[in-house]
Amino acid sequence: MGTFKDAAKRVLYPTYEARLVRQLETLGSDRLPKHVGVMLDGNRRWARAVGADTAAGHRAGAANISPFLAWCDDLGVEVVTLWLLSTDNLNRPAEELAPLLGIIEDVVTELAAAGHWRINPVGALDLLPPATARVLKDAADATHDVDGTLVNIAVGYGGRREIADAVRSLLQHHAGQGTSIEELAEVLDVDHIAEHLYTRGQPDPDLVIRTSGEQRLGGFLLWQSAHSEFYFCEAYWPDFRRVDFLRALRAYAVRHRRFGQ
Hints:
Low-confidence stretches: none
Shape: globular
Distance between the termini: 51 Å
Structural class: alpha/beta
CATH topology of the domain at 31-158 and 205-253: Undecaprenyl pyrophosphate synthetase
Radius of gyration: 20 Å
CATH class of the domain at 31-158 and 205-253: Alpha Beta
Strand content: 5-15%
CATH architecture of the domain at 31-158 and 205-253: 3-Layer(aba) Sandwich
Order of helices and strands: HEHHHEHEHEHHHEEH
CATH superfamily of the domain at 31-158 and 205-253: Decaprenyl diphosphate synthase-like
């Protein structure tokens, strides 16, 4: 039975994908997101489901990143933010965290070596082991001049931490200019804080995708996603296919965005 189902999928999915692509083309490229944020969730549950260890789940998830970025390239997505490790994840047991960090280092190195994408680490790199932080910084340096999709790699990332860091950076900046707290309070607005976020200078995400069936943000891009559209997918990240991505884009394209109005 499983073999028959797999064969049917191999036959039907290309046809279904082609149909989704035609629908997106009909809707128009202006209806597609320019910045997509993804919460790559479900690696551990995928591993349990197939009887593998946790590290195997993370490796399977890492293997799906390059294909996903290629799909984004094909459809004109200009910025992608991938949440690979939260600040809360840093509290996981060492026997799980160490292999995960190694997998992240490997995949970031591979993405940089491909030369297709501009890597930009976002997160509290000071919380990471020095070796991991160095890999992220080296990838950013190596791809600085790449004329390709900007890929934010969120490692050691938490939305609350980002906002706190932004406010801290803002205060330090104005203190260096001799601005008093009272003077800053008179002029402070949301744009001042946005200028100090990890993603400063970038457009906010149009679409945020979370895999694995969970329907919550969990601290991902809390500031930037105020007007984002959300798409929750049942598939675990290692099983997330191009057809799933096309469905997400179709759902986004037919929505009427109000931007809080």
